[in-house]
Design goal:
The chain has 11 helices and no strands. By secondary structure, the chain is mainly α.
């Protein structure tokens, strides 16, 4: 456990000092502030517009941090051979990989909390106390936890560019999983329908973490949804983390 904590802390500190991370955080703040003006320019309920745009900004920049920081963090250590120095100490490969995943994930979590708090305060200025923003932040943190484990899994055996590309692709496909499943029902061929449906179940379904519309329009969500989302997160996070650790254990460094 000490090795995991040490690697996670080092990864977190490196991530916070990374210029890419700071640039993304800066532009996220700018866009969130811009949502106030957007609420005045666009026809409709300003509160809903600010909340909808703000949550989209949170999701976008959380994704960018996972893709760029998560996709390059491990690869840089492989290229600079600093991983050899760390592994020469009493730290196993499994501990190293888990520490990297947790460190990057905490970077993303910090960013999400900062953006969520700012969005909440902006809505408060408009007279709306929308605590549901933190529900979105919680679900987004779970979603990005899965994506972080995916990013480090790819990063453990491929190049920085391919790792970022594959991670981004998983995110896009994960948000289309429900659509793919519904599309399978329209296919006439039984074999094709079965194959497409199987694919929809095989890929991560990020709709388990998407409540943007419900939050914006004040639709009540059953508590069972959060239990399912948390269980789904634990399942996929554990699965991809184990694969990442196994791949890294087999890799020559």
């Amino acid at each position: 456990m000490k090795g995991i904590k040490t690697v996670a802390l080092i990864t977190f500190k490196e991530g916070v000092r990374d210029r890419v991370y700071l640039i993304f955080l800066f532009f996220a703040v700018i866009l969130l502030l811009f949502s106030l003006f957007l609420g005045m320019l666009v026809i409709g309920d300003p509160t809903k517009i600010i909340a909808d745009f703000g949550m989209a900004v949170m999701s976008l920049f959380a994704l960018l941090i996972v893709v760029f920081v998560g996709g390059t963090s491990f690869a840089r250590e492989i290229q600079k051979k600093t991983v050899i120095l760390v592994l020469s100490k009493p730290v196993s490969r499994e501990e190293f990989m888990l520490g990297k995943i947790l460190g990057v994930w905490f970077n993303v979590f910090l960013n999400i909390i900062a953006m969520g708090t700012l969005l909440f305060l902006l809505l408060l200025l408009r007279g709306a106390k929308m605590w549901e923003i933190f529900v979105h932040a919680f679900l987004l943190t779970l979603e990005m936890g899965i994506l972080t484990s995916v990013a480090l899994m790819f990063s453990s055996f491929t190049t920085q560019f391919l790792s970022m590309l594959f991670t981004f692709s998983v995110y896009i496909v994960g948000h289309l999983a429900t659509t793919i499943k519904k599309a399978s029902m329209t296919l006439k061929s039984g074999v094709s329908r079965t194959v497409v449906k199987a694919v929809s179940y095989a890929i991560p379904n990020f709709d388990y973490f998407n409540l943007k519309n419900q939050i914006v329009y004040g639709i009540k969500v059953p508590s069972i949804f959060f239990y399912k989302s948390t269980a789904y997160f634990l399942l996929l996070f554990t699965f991809f983390t184990i694969i990442a650790m196994w791949v890294f254990k087999k890799r020559e460094v």
